[in-house]
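Input record (one chain):
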Amino acid sequence: MLEEDGRRPFTEIADRLHVSESSVRKRVLTLQREGVIKRFTVKVDAAKSGFSTVAIVGVDADPTRLLQVAQQLCNFKEIKCVATSTGDHMVMLEIWARSGRELTKLISERIGTIEGVKRICPALILEKLKE
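The corresponding structure, as predicted from the sequence alone:
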């Protein structure tokens, strides 16, 4: 229920589950302490907030620099997600940009100049059907 609406009152959750509000509050606190619930946040619509270009980008790096490259990519505000992976690419990114030109500049002038980056493979997202 909290995944659907992180602002849902504990009293409402308790009523739906037929338990006390204090039980819900204690359970949520336990889940936070154990790291199951990492944080409460909001989901932003990229297009409505001015980011009309969203891309999933695969990055290949020199294996000896993989973790350093991934860590550097975490510092870019335009990159919303950084994950090391197996398969076609060593690092996968989700990038939000205001235009194709902005994405191109980010890839060529900033990501491409990171020491250890060997190859960059962007794929534009046409439509997100599920998050």
